[in-house]
Specification:
This protein is an alpha/beta fold and 266 residues long. It is 33% helix and 16% strand.
């Protein structure tokens, strides 16, 4: 099983001096990030579609084996609640902008609002599935407990959608498997101040151990072809360190970035 573990985003000013050397410019942060990690999840696509110009730039600045996953625009998931007729223009704009990057996209993520229950979303997803590009796989992050019902799991399995494993408040996620890959978003709560994102300020080893055990269960499952695990600053304060903690728990080598840190040149 191919496993990649990375951070949800890379453009955090708080990482300067801890992850990013002060000697490099902000416009080169993606190059630096992708020299260490092999995957990231793009959150900005949730707020506005990525333009072809930006997609070209990201493709040019990252290694061939680097991977992007991106969140669907909130217009589609939250405003239009997966309704295809209302979402046509936004979908076209979204997929068109990603064309220059599509060879580095493995998964696109539909993060749904907590109020969107499976019974409402099912007919909409049936229609939407007919209009999705072939170059990507798709993960659905259901934030209502109805997404973990037998009916929902059967539907997602039939249509080849991955139900996201997630660590968020108010949702009990039993780590179901609905297709031949696993996508996990270990986000945590949002009660940390942003200025704390340059170091680990709380220990969530118990959560990491919980998800490590779930991953170990599928290591020998021949049906699972690949897994993607994305971690956020919200979990412990500093996502790169949290990634390393999970890698160690899984018996993987830590990423090295502390030796690349330098003081800002005067």
């Amino acid at each position: 099983m191919e496993l990649k573990i990375g951070c949800t985003g890379w453009g955090y000013k708080e990482w300067e001096g801890t992850f990013y050397p002060r000697t490099i410019r902000q416009k080169d942060w993606l190059r630096h990030y992708s020299s260490i990690f092999d995957i990231t999840e793009v959150n900005s696509s949730f707020y506005h579609p990525i333009t072809k110009h930006v997609a070209h730039k990201w493709n040019r600045e990252t290694p061939k084996n680097f991977e992007f996953s991106l969140k669907f625009p909130q217009k589609i998931t939250h405003q239009y609640r997966l309704d295809y007729d209302n979402s046509k223009h936004t979908l076209t704009e979204f997929f068109s902008g990603l064309e220059p990057l599509k060879e580095k996209i493995r998964v696109l993520v539909m993060q749904l609002p907590p109020t969107l229950e499976f019974v409402e979303a099912r007919p909409k997803l049936e229609i939407l599935s007919e209009h999705l590009p072939q170059y990507s796989r798709f993960a659905v992050e259901g934030r209502h407990q109805s997404w973990f019902s037998p009916e929902a799991l059967d539907f997602l399995t039939e249509y080849g959608f991955c139900l996201v494993w997630s660590e968020i408040p108010a949702v009990k996620n039993p780590a179901p498997i609905t297709t031949d890959f696993v996508y996990a978003r270990l986000i945590g709560d949002r009660n940390l101040p942003k200025d704390a994102y340059n170091h680990r300020i709380r220990d969530k080893t118990d959560i990491l151990v919980k998800w490590k055990e779930q991953l170990l269960k599928i290591y020998d499952n021949e049906k699972i072809k690949f897994s993607r695990i994305l971690l956020n600053n919200h979990l412990e304060g500093f996502a790169p360190d949290t990634v390393n903690s999970l890698r160690v728990l899984l018996g993987m080598k830590e990423y090295s970035f502390s030796d690349k840190m330098q003081e800002k040149l005067e």
